Amino acid sequence: MDEQRYGEWVAVRRHGAHVAELVLDRPKAMNAVSTAMARSLAEACQALSADRSARVAVVTSTHERSFCVGADLKERNSFTDAELLRQRPVTRAAYTGVLELPMPTIAAVHGFALGGGFEIALSCDLIVADRTAVVGLPEVSVGVIPGGGGTQLLPRRVGVARAAELVFSARRVAAAEARELGLVDVLVDEGADTGEALALAGRIAANSPVGLRAAKRAMRLGHGLDLRAGLEVEDAAWRSVAFSGDRAEGVAAFNEKRTPDWPGE
Hints:
By secondary structure, this protein is of the alpha/beta class.
């Protein structure tokens, strides 16, 4: 298995030719996001975004009991106001990096996914969680607000009123309720989250890489627009793929009853 390290606490592993695993690997701190880890995560996402061979990315954790517990509050406790302000663009780049990955993304969540950790998962297109998962945005309990996209991503996932209850109460939500509320998409047995996410990624990666990226772009850009405007976004995305090599190969493979060999163009 190929692995590329980005700093000390983030890695990208390859599973076959087309599935990338973005690994949070700061186990001694339960993957708390320090300045250095945020910088590494942004660098890893930048490299992944430029990798045309990666059709799906899966975000995982090496810690047995935690996906990511959010910001490194021990580090922040020593910050001056000026230092906290200087850290802000670094952490924003990390969360934005995950959110703007051009290929479909899946978070494999077990244990704690809190604050910024849950925001990393929310930045993905799909969330697979095992039964140990505990998710939440507890930032108001320590005097701040979700700052990694949570106030925008959570309402888009579960609606404004439900998101307000979760953010305002700062409560933690166990796996079964999280699945019921739509905070996670797939619930699996303990320890099966990474395997299921990678299996799902493999099934997705069998499809056209051009089509996958265009479909994600259309859904992301069209969400929140009125229907007419959203359909224009979809039409633009359709036009971007209609004359691609992938479209020609997909139609030919269908008619010849064979597996497509996607050119990715």
